[in-house]
């Protein structure tokens, strides 16, 4: 039986302390209009010195990124934090699953802080452990569970990573998804299947465009439907069982805008992230991870024109850093990642000043059992051959 476990709270209503969704920031948040916010953040950072290490995800606002000791994608940041064991506090300017990963990869004495607990990720929220366990049981009922290797994208909660660790699976990033899938398909011989969590688009784009599987090899498991909305025969026939999750930011890009841009700007190059829908990726000139997007723009000759399909804070930062190029956002509407944007200067100042005052606010702590199993899946990723592990 499928567990119907709606992960998302109605906007602005209700809280769930267990998952930290909708939990408000405790304490006195400085007013966003306070003209001294930058000076206060700077003073708090100076006061904490080497005791604090500030991580800034690429999709964060400039007002926060200016205080980051390092910037990067989620996996790089977690590894950077692990490389600074002298830092007592890791302030993660990103979203909840990233802070969990940092807690898993850092030493026990390091405390990870998320400046706003409402900074979740809609994609990660689309795969909850009870739902995934229900799907796993359905795979057993269909007689295929022994052939299935679960693979989860980095953008998933710690308990989903732990599920993969317990069940012979692996974590992947958008850079190494192909290598991770190759590894997964080798684990169970000829009839191997993959359950790919939680981003159907990264799973489909990797399987079809990089590994040569067909769209017919892929089925989509909908956790809100009995039996995932699939027959046992469909499960037996499939090679990729894609979880019905997506990124609400990357899912917005459409082939129509690509066509319009190509009609009006003939030399435009379309550069997108593999979290975009398959039909958008098919229309793109280049597809790759956040790091790939940054490196591609940095290496491009002056005068190049790019329309980029990824989070808007990053696209704007690239446009500012590369005035010699024409950089456009691949959407007509302004659309930031709303949860990434929860981390603003007032929350950052509040978190840093709390640390200075001797209180550790919004600590993200993964329980030891989950951490142990999640580390198994993360270690399998680190042991994959070849490609880098940046997403
Ligand atoms: S950009 Fe997408 S995947 Fe990244 S945090 Fe926002 S919703 Fe999640």
UniProtKB/TrEMBL annotation:
It comes from the Bacteria. Its main location: cytoplasm. It is found in: Cytoplasm. Residues 1-23 are annotated as: Disordered. It catalyses: iminosuccinate + dihydroxyacetone phosphate = quinolinate + phosphate + 2 H2O + H(+). Iminosuccinate binds at residues 57, 74, 153-155, 174, 273-275, 290. [4Fe-4S] cluster binds at residues 121, 247, 337. Pathway: Cofactor biosynthesis; NAD(+) biosynthesis; quinolinate from iminoaspartate: step 1/1. Residues 14-23 have a biased composition (Basic and acidic residues). The keyword Phosphoprotein does not apply. Its cofactor is [4Fe-4S] cluster. Catalyzes the condensation of iminoaspartate with dihydroxyacetone phosphate to form quinolinate. Belongs to the quinolinate synthase family. Type 3 subfamily. This is Quinolinate synthase.
């Amino acid at each position: 039986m499928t567990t119907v476990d709606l992960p998302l709270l109605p906007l602005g209503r209700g809280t769930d302390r267990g998952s930290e969704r909708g939990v408000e920031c405790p304490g006195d948040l400085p007013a966003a209009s306070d003209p001294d916010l930058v000076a206060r953040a700077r003073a708090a950072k100076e006061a904490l010195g080497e005791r604090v290490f500030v991580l800034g995800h690429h999709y964060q606002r400039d007002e926060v990124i200016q205080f980051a000791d390092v910037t990067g994608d989620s996996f790089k940041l977690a590894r950077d934090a692990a490389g600074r064991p002298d830092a007592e506090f890791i302030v993660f300017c990103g979203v909840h699953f990233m802070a969990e990963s940092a807690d898993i990869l850092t030493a026990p004495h390091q405390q990870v802080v998320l400046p706003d607990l409402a900074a979740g990720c809609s994609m990660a929220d689309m795969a909850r452990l009870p739902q995934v366990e229900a799907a796993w049981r359905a795979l057993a009922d269909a007689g295929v569970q022994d052939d299935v290797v679960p693979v989860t994208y980095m953008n998933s909660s710690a308990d989903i990573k732990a599920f993969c660790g317990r069940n012979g699976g692996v974590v992947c990033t958008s850079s190494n998804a192909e290598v991770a899938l190759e590894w997964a398909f080798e684990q169970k011989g000829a009839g191997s299947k993959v359950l790919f969590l939680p981003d159907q688009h990264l799973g489909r784009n990797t399987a079809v465009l990089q590994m040569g599987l067909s769209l017919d090899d892929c089925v989509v498991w909908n956790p809100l439907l009995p039996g995932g909305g699939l027959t046992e025969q469909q499960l037996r026939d499939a090679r990729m069982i894609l979880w019905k999750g997506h990124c609400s930011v990357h899912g917005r890009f459409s082939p129509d805008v690509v066509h319009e841009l190509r009609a009006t700007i003939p030399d435009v190059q379309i550069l997108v992230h593999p979290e975009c829908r398959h039909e958008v990726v098919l229309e793109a000139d280049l597809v790759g991870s956040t790091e790939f997007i940054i490196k591609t723009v940095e290496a491009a000759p002056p005068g190049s024109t790019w329309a980029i399909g990824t989070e808007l804070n990053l696209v704007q930062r690239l446009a500012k850093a590369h005035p010699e190029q024409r950089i456009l956002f691949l959407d007509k509407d302004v659309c930031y990642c709303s949860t990434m944007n929860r981390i603003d200067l007032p929350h950052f100042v509040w978190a840093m000043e709390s640390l200075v005052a001797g209180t550790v606010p919004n600590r993200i702590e993964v329980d030891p059992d989950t951490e142990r199993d999640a580390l198994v899946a993360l270690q399998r990723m680190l042991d994959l051959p070849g490609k880098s592990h940046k997403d």
